[in-house]
Every structure is written in structure tokens, then in C-alpha cells.
Amino acid sequence: MEYEPVIGLEVHAQLKTDSKLFCGCSTRFGKEPNANTCPVCLGMPGVLPVLNRKVVQYTVMMGLATNCRIAGESIFARKNYFYPDLPKGYQISQYEAPICEDGWVEIKANGEARRIGITRIHMEEDAGKLVHEGAFDSSHSSFVDLNRACVPLMEIVSEPDIRSPEEAGAYMRKLRDIVIYLGICDGNMEEGSLRCDANISIRPRGSDTFGTRAEIKNMNSFRFLQAALEYEFERQVDLIRDDGHVVQETRLFDSNRGVTSSMRSKEEAHDYRYFPEPDLVPLRIGPDWVEQVRQSLPESRDEKIGRYVGEMKLSEYDAQVLTSDPVTARFFENVVRGGAKPKAASNWVMGEFMRLVKEAGVEAAKITPEQVAHIIMLVETQAISGSAAKAVFEQVFDTGQDPDRVVKEQGLAQVSDEGAIREEVQRVLDDHPDDVARFRAGKQKVLGFLVGQVMKATKGKANPKLVNEILRELLSK
Fold first, then answer.
1. What number of helices (H) and strands (E) belong to the chain?
2. Using N-to-C axis directions, what is the helix angle for 165-182 and 222-241, rounded to 10°?
3. Confidence at residue 457, expressed as pLDDT on a 0 to 100 scale
4. Whole-angstrom Cα distance, residue 38 to residue 329?
5. How many other CB atoms are found less than 10 A from the CB of residue 227?
6. How far is CA 30 from CA 68, 124, 184, in A?
7. Contact (Cβ atoms closer than 8 angstroms) between residue 342 and residue 376
8. pLDDT over threshold 80, residue 417
9. Where are the alpha helices (DSSP H) in 338-445?
């Protein structure tokens, strides 16, 4: 019997706000342990949470970007469980009445476009984290860092519509694109700003009945997500074929061994004893404010790709690369606004700019889009050669100097004086009579050698087009 996976993802995105969800403490990553804390996020008795309006706005933005219905009224709930880094003994989340429901996104995987449903998007606070020192023996110590406690999270729960690990990766990438382009989350998976729990079960292909699912916790890499799902799918298939059964449980993925292992039995909603948060009134959102948020949404990555292909006549590949992050897309568009043609701008941004950024980091880039556009213009007007332009680009990238000044100081201006080039060409022909004879005998490849000799004699400054034209003219006599 052939089986198929049934996969749903619960994605947690840390929202890019300056302060936490229910207090004014900083959300900045990397501070000293417990530096970003106050009585509210430490769960001290008698304190009251105050909702961060920006968190509501960001969550509504995500709901609109994923075609969700925005609830006129949503309710916060207490999710009760014990963990050492959860100071209150409960987490403020949303349960029965989330802020966003019934949405979808479209993904492309395995050459096919599919729509993945979104059950809900809700707001909740993060827990702290445990810091372990030493081996797990009598010398072991664990410390609690509550800087992350009460940091705002947005949880995006998909429908069980995903049918392969590849689709799960594509769905996760799509959500990452959306939050980054909205500017509501930095999408840094290594720092835990974007992570997910994956639920997977199997069933006979063509069946409508769901199997028993296992949950894989805390995936913070596209590669690990796909690898964990691939392993878990094969594990469950082997269990069923051996007349066993899948246990509903939470599992962890060991990326070094490429396997999942049991962590604990899977909790159900009733295990958390949800009830409405008594310290927060129901959240009511009017349609006028939702419309204001809708009007403020920036252009999405998909919309940019469509515009680059449709209006700028770029290839799908170029559009995908240029929109890989908003910073690169914005830089490219400003190069075009500076007067460069879209294809030329695309070539230089995808080539020299992205190469140097990869080597030195984007923070090292001192070149401006206007300077890139000017360098492109210098090439198109034949003021400098393409190779000289790369040297100019690299120096401007490092220093921010004016391109014209670099060209002048380094003597990189291209020679387009026909008389001067003709003299150099004739000198090269006189110095290489055997090569001239071979060309006239039909050895066309000799032309490249002769062009190289002229360029060498002019230290690369001669206009290559003129060199070729004059060489062909003189060799034809």
C-alpha cells in the first residue's frame, strides 16, 4: 500500500517591536541575562498586563497578507502549564477567539502551485529560556534567563493541507518572505525569531481519514524541517507496515544523526486548562482601522516579482534573485530610478553588488544606487570599459568615492580616439606578420590574440569595439 504524509505547521514569528507584549521592557536580542525584565514579565503578584498596540497592528497586517478574516472581537486566554522559564506558571495566548482566521497562501513545490489553508493566527507571549552549563551529572547547573519572557509572538497555524516535506519547506519560506516584506519580523531562524512545530501523520494515498499524528518541536531551519519530516514519514510508514501503531507524542529532531526521538506524550487542549484571561478585556477592532492597516501594506515579494517580469521585462530568475530580500530589491529599484535600464541594473546588482556584499557584508557597502547607475552610464557611453567599470565599482563600494574621480585618478578612461587606436593596431600587425598571415589563411581565432595585443599595448584603455572594427578593416586589405 502506498502512503502519503499529512502535514500541518505551527509557525511562531517573533514580532519586531521595541517593547514586549504586555510591558515596556526592551525586546533587543543579546542583552545580559535578565537585563530586559520588570515585575510584569517576571510574573510578580499584583501586576497587570497592558497590551502593546503595535503587536495588534502587526498581527492584523499578517492576517490581511494571508487572506484571513479579521475578527471584530478576539479574546486572550491563559494557557496553564509548568516550566522553569515560565515565571507566571501560565502563558497569555489566544484560544477560542483568535484575531485572524480562515486564510490561505499559495506555494510552488515540485513544479506545482498549491493553496495551503491557514486555520488561525493569534498573539501570545514567549517564555524565557534555560541556559545549561557542564555535563548532565552532579556538576551540572541550569540557569533561567527571562529576557525573552513576554516578547510578542505571532502563531500561524496551517490546515493539514501539506503533502510533502518539500511543500512544508516552500510554505515556511513563503511565510518568511511575507513577514520580512511586511517588516514585522526579521525572519532570523538561527536566533529563533522564526521557528515552527510540525505535525505529521500518514494515511493510504487517496484516503480522507487522518492517521495519528506526531509533533516535531522547534524546527529553526528549512533544511532541518524537511529532513525531520522525511525521517518521520518513513518511521511511521515502517511502523504501520510492521503491524504497529503510531503514538501521539511530541518528538525532537537530532540534526547530527538525522533522526527524531520521543520527548513526551502529546498534550491536548484540555491539558492546558484554557480560560479567558481575567486581566485583559476582549479586544475589539473596528472595520475602519482594519482598512487603514490594509492600505498601509507594502508591496509583497510576489507583487514585486510580477512587476519586474511584466513591466521591467526581466526574467523570472532575475526577479527571484533581486527580491530575495527587501534590501536588495530596494537597492535595485533605486539604481533604475537613477537612470539605469532595468536589465543593466539587474546584471550589476546581481553580479558585482551581491558578490561584494557576500564577501564583506551589506554594512560594508558605501556605494549608493545613484553611483551604480552612473557607473552603468559610463560603460554605456563607452567612457570606460567593462573591466575598468568593475575596478571602479569595487573601489566605490569600499570607499564611497565619486566614480568620475576614481576614473580620473586611476587613469581608467577608455580611449575612443580612432586615430590613436589605428596607430596601435597597425603597430601590432607590423610586429606579428605570421599571425596576420594565419588569419588571412582562414584562422579566425587569431583575431582574438591580436585584439589582446592591442589591449595590452593600450593598457586596456582602447575601445574594444573600435579595436575589432579597425583590425578587421586592416586585415581585409
1. 16, 16
2. 150
3. 82
4. 39
5. 19
6. 34, 21, 19
7. no
8. no
9. 342-348, 354-360, 369-380, 386-399, 403-409, 418-431, 433-440
Residue 30: count of CB within 10 angstroms of its CB:
7
Measured CA to CA in angstroms, residue 292 lies from 35, 98, 248, 286, 442 at distances of: 36, 20, 43, 10, 72
Residues 6 or more apart whose CB falls under 8 angstroms from that of 456 comprise none
CA angle 381, 382, 386 (to 5 degrees): 120
Dist CA 365 CA 381 (whole Å): 25
Give the whole-angstrom CA distance, residue 369 versus residue 353: 10
CA torsion through residues 428, 432, 437, 438, sign: negative
Phi, psi of 262, rounded to the nearest 5 degrees = -70, 135
Round to whole Å and give the CA distance between 423 and 72. Answer: 81
pLDDT at 135: 66
Confidence of residue 136 (pLDDT cuts 50, 70, 90): low
Write the single-letter amino acid at 169: G
Q: Domains of the chain: which residue ranges?
A: 3-288, 299-409, 418-475
pTM score of the predicted model = 0.86
269 or 187: which leads in pLDDT: 187
Contact indicator for 80, 272 with CB cutoff of 8 Å? yes
Rounded distance, CA 55 to CA 53, Å? 5
CA of 372: how far to CAs of 25, 334, 345, 349, 404, in Å?
Answer: 41, 9, 8, 8, 12
Pseudo-torsion of CA 292, 293, 294, 296, nearest 10°? 90
What's the CATH class of domain 418-475?
Answer: mainly alpha
CB 188 within 8 A of CB 167: no
